[in-house]
Amino acid sequence: MATATRPRRPNTYITNPTGKHTGTVIFFHGLGDTGAGWSAAMEEIREPHIKYICPTALPMPVTLNGGMRMPSWFDLFNLQIGGKEDTEGIKKVVKEIVSEMVAEEEADGIPSNRVLIGGFSQGRFPDALSFVS
User: Fewer CB within 10 A of the end CB, N or C, for the chain?
Assistant: First the structure.
């Protein structure tokens, strides 16, 4: 069963493997969501050798939503293709969250090529950018 843990980030949900741990999935939720629901979904599709980590973004004001505070990995200014993006916020997610979580898995003996980073909606930006940074 998934549990909220403090060692990583507040409200990070981890579904531990039931067998020998040989890989990890780190899955980022979309705007306004949390890791809790995605953690439950990961339990439904889990593989016994995989650990699933579903962090929750900290609440922040989101420009697109009139400055309303909600769980968000970075600010959103608009939905236009080619529009202004929070490039620094996206880079910060990759540097401070993705890289840190991958390093923690490596410290636990899981090589980085056995750590899959994914996400839904806004949560897709960190995994896409992590390949180019």
Answer: N
